[in-house]
Design a protein that fits this description.
The complex is a heterodimer of chains A (505) and B (180).
Chain A (H helix, E strand, L loop, with lengths): L1 H13 L2 H19 L5 H8 L8 H26 L8 H12 L3 H34 L4 H18 L4 H15 L2 E2 L6 E2 L13 H19 L4 E5 L4 H10 L4 H16 L3 H16 L12 H16 L1 H7 L5 H12 L8 H4 L1 H31 L5 H20 L2 H19 L5 H24 L10 H14 L1 H7 L15
Antiparallel strand pairs in A: 1-2
Helix pairs in contact in A: 1-17, 2-3, 2-4, 2-17, 3-4, 3-9, 3-15, 4-5, 4-6, 4-15, 4-17, 5-6, 5-13, 6-10, 6-11, 6-13, 6-14, 6-17, 7-8, 7-20, 7-21, 8-20, 9-18, 9-19, 11-12, 11-13, 12-13, 15-20, 18-19
Chain B lengths: L5 E5 L11 E4 H26 L3 E2 L2 E2 L3 H23 L7 E4 H24 L1 H16 L4 H22 L8 H5 L3
Antiparallel strand pairs in B: 2-5, 3-4
Helix pairs in contact in B: 1-2, 3-4, 4-5
The chains are: A mainly alpha (505), B mainly alpha (180).
């Protein structure tokens, strides 16, 4: 119960007007970016990151994670009211959410979505509260070989479990790792891959790349599509909320199953998108009446939303405990930690108790405040969509540029951001996944350091990665995961649940 | 329930036509990207080889780790190139249609100009020009609305970043005239 005491301490850290105000601002901004087309969780967090540069780490992380919760909530609004998933993980929510809105049950669907988001996050936060300290204290015993093995596991599971073409994931990941190495080598002090450029000397900043890849490229992609929309405006009355909540216990199996799927996929780098589809498909499969799905069944909203949020939240668990982000957004938060001068990894729980427990406590508080906020302000946010994209797009571009420049005060970074914008646009269109790239870029130098330190320790003997039971089993598991598709085929249909099945919406 | 509902309708008059001809297909783009990545891998691989990919007394040299990564990148891009060339031409999807490309260019080039303007005029002036110009010329929004929005947004950014949060942005002659 040590965790409980520390959690209470975390709440005590949070209970200042300044932090509560920042949380509200973060949530509002988050819902805003979640609702706007062409902006999402990772973009929003990346663009707004510069706001936090001069804050202390605790205020900064509270604000950023609130943006993240807000974006998760916001995605549901457009899916249900306009049939436009603001985020990829909200796609499954449109299957039943939009039909409900068409039947005039928009308020009910929104309440269901927000409530299940809340439940999903809550389950994941509970998991983090009790599991993260254990994992991190375990990880304190890790040496460089163990850390390298864990990084290897992360990368391999992306390749093996990802839904994209394997070679595309490998391209994205090796490119990220390579670019992470540009600049001064941290071990020997030698310059590499700079080609005599003084701008490349600093290296390629992770956040600049993220702002370009997600922010700028998303605007280019959004412009390609027809931006006309037609939907319903709805306000939520207390009576509807209570009615939906009264029925909640009936769906406990669905909620629990989706939370579990979400937590699992969030910790392993599978992501919220896979989780939401899987949650939906399983709810449909186990339902007594699968035909009614897709026609406005409330369970079809509960299942994907719970899973998406559980997964989005659980992705923070490996980030906190091991310094390995489980999702793109978690990777950006990790980049933030480094900007604020914190060293992500298991030591965080020892050296920065206030910060970690403040963050965990803010997950509870942020979700409760977020739930109340979205339930009461839906009509306002829905009407944001009336603002023409021609006004929103240039503002996003400016925000991206401010974000990119602020990180290192370098004009070069604004150009780099533009370049990454184009790269991101092309990569997305030919379905080279960006998440492995992001992860590789943020973990690259630490993975390399871990590798080289292990090599120095062992005198260049690769067998160091099998030198004891722990590191040996992680390394072996990584290799199994890398070749998982092959093994999977051999074992037949066992792995079918790993991929979201194509569903007819 | 239904009387509390208002329909929200937003139109997009400049939307790209659905039947616009394709400029290029994904197959071509994939092949080009794979070639470019192959070139990049070769370039970075060479640079790392020059740095040193062997081992010395302190362990692997600086180029060791990135060199093997460029080998992996080269391998994966080569595989991608071959796989793309082997797929049938019919299976390829449209990468971008002409109308879509026009719209993308309508955002990309203003953004490019904005970056240039930031370099010489400072970020805030560039931001004002981008927002006002984009809203008016691309979005066909009334002049006064465009100018007002641009001014308010830029001023808000200035107050938030330069004054409230001490995040200093690049400045140009206009800010200098006001003493910033």
């Amino acid at each position: 119960m040590e965790a409980f005491g520390l959690l209470l301490h975390g709440f005590a850290v949070l209970m200042t007007w300044k932090i509560i105000a920042l949380m509200l601002v973060g949530l509002v901004l988050g819902i805003f970016v979640g609702v706007l087309p062409g902006l999402g969780g990772p973009n929003g967090v990346a663009i707004l990151l510069p706001l936090t540069f001069t804050m202390d780490p605790t205020s900064a992380i509270v604000m950023l994670s609130s943006i993240y919760w807000g974006a998760l909530f916001g995605g549901a609004i457009t899916s249900i009211l306009f049939n436009i998933p603001g985020e990829a993980w909200s796609v499954a929510t449109t299957f039943d959410g939009y039909p409900m809105a068409q039947q005039g049950r928009a308020a009910e669907a929104l309440t269901a979505a927000f409530t299940s988001s809340f439940i999903g996050s809550l389950v994941a936060v509970l998991l983090i509260t009790f599991l993260a300290p254990l994992i991190s204290s375990f990880a304190l015993k890790f040496g460089p070989p163990e850390f390298f093995a864990v990084y290897l596991l992360t990368f391999c599971s992306f390749v093996g479990l990802g839904r994209e073409d394997k070679h595309k994931t490998v391209i994205s990941m090796s490119l990220g790792l390579l670019l992470a190495g540009v600049g001064m080598d941290t071990v020997s002090g030698q310059l590499r891959m700079t080609f005599g450029s003084s701008d490349l000397l600093r290296g390629i900043n992770f956040l600049v790349a993220v702002i370009g890849l997600f922010g700028i490229s998303e605007i280019l992609l959004t412009m390609e599509e027809r931006l006309a929309l037609r939907g319903h405006a709805a306000s939520i009355s207390l009576r509807v909320v209570l009615n939906v909540w009264k029925d909640l216990p009936k769906y406990w199996v669905t909620l629990l199953r989706s939370s579990f799927i979400g937590c699992w996929l969030g910790i392993t780098p599978g992501g919220a998108i896979a989780a939401s589809f899987m949650g939906y498909n399983l709810a449909k499969r186990f339902s007594k009446d699968p035909e009614s799905f897709g026609k406005g069944r409330i369970e079809g909203v509960f299942a994907p939303e719970t899973a998406a949020h559980a997964s989005g939240t659980a992705a923070l668990l490996p980030m906190l405990a091991l310094g390995i982000p489980g999702s793109g957004t978690a990777a950006i938060l990790l980049g933030g930690l480094m900007v604020w001068g914190l060293n992500p990894g298991p030591l965080l729980f020892v050296e920065h108790k206030d910060f970690v427990w403040g963050l965990i406590a803010s997950m509870y508080l942020g979700n409760i405040v977020g739930l109340v906020l979205v339930l009461t302000t839906v009509p306002i946010f829905a009407s944001i969509l009336r603002v023409p994209f021609a006004a929103v797009a240039p503002m996003i571009v400016v925000s991206c540029a401010i974000g990119a420049y602020a990180i290192q005060n370098a004009m070069f970074d604004i150009w780099l951001m533009l370049l990454f914008g184009v790269v991101g646009y092309v990569f997305k269109k030919i379905s080279i996944p960006l998440a492995p790239f992001t992860l590789a870029l943020v973990l690259g130098s630490r993975a390399e350091d871990a590798f080289r330190l292990s090599m120095i320790g062992s005198g260049g003997d690769m067998r160091v990665f099998w030198s004891n039971g722990l590191v040996g089993s992680i390394t072996t598991l990584s290799i199994i995961l890398l070749f998982w598709p092959v093994i999977d085929q051999a074992f037949g249909r066992v792995g079918r649940l790993w991929r979201p099945l194509k569903t007819t919406g | 329930m239904s009387n509390s509902e208002i329909e929200i309708v937003v139109d997009d008059p400049t939307a790209p036509e659905a039947d616009s001809p394709a400029v290029t297909d994904t197959r071509t783009v994939e092949a080009v990207v794979c070639l470019l990545l192959l070139g990049l891998a070769a370039l970075l691989g060479y640079d790392n080889w020059r740095t040193g990919i062997g081992w010395d007394s302190t362990g692997p040299q600086a180029g060791y780790f990135p060199f093997y990564l460029s080998v992996i990148l080269a391998g994966a891009s080569l595989y991608g190139l071959v796989a793309t060339l082997l797929t049938s031409r019919e299976a390829a999807e449209t990468f971008v249609t002409r109308a879509q490309l026009g719209r993308v260019a309508a955002v990309f080039f203003p953004t490019l100009l904005f970056c240039l303007a930031t370099q010489y005029l400072g970020l805030y002036v560039a931001s004002f020009l981008l927002i006002a110009g984009f809203m008016r010329l691309i979005g066909k929004i009334a002049w006064w609305k465009s100018l007002l929005t641009a001014f308010i947004f830029t001023a808000l950014m200035f107050v938030t970043f330069d004054i409230a949060f001490d995040v200093i942005m690049p400045k140009g002659p206009l800010e200098a005239a006001f003493g910033y």
